[in-house]
Amino acid sequence: MIVLGSSIVGLIYVFWQNGFAKNSVKALVIAMVYCWGLIRAIYMMSHGLVAVPRKLYQNADINRRLRRIQGQAPRIYDRLNDANFALEGLDAQRILNTEEACNLARSSKMD
Question: Each residue of 64-109: pLDDT tens digit?
């Protein structure tokens, strides 16, 4: 309704200023289409397309990015140590299972 109302007001204004001419109506339609496209682009930019340039801007500041990475480093290092500890436990379990399988195979050959 807003678009229709503004187009009628614009058409009346153009007729008032220039009279009824085909070129003036054509110019009005082109101007309104450009205006509508601009309004839609601004609306879409405000709903998420701004996040990409903001992230690029934040990553451009090397000092801030370095501080953020340094802040994450202790937590990541702790997770690495936990994973290594779990891997050592699994490796020890694998060695025990391998030894048990060898012992079981030896005992079944002797029987």
Answer: 989 989 999 999 999 999 999 999 999 999 999 998 888 877 777 7
pLDDT score for 111: 59
C-alpha Rg value of the chain to the nearest Å? 36
Task: Name the burial class of residue 2, with classes exposed (0-12), middle (13-18) and buried (19+) by CB atoms within 10 angstroms of its CB.
Answer: exposed
Per-residue HEC secondary structure of the chain comes to CHHHHHHHHHHHHHHHHHCCCHHHHHHHHHHHHHHHHHHHHHHHHHHHHCHHHHHHHHHHCHHHHHHHHHHHHHHHHHHHHHHHHHHHHHHHHHHHHHHHHHHHHHHHHHC
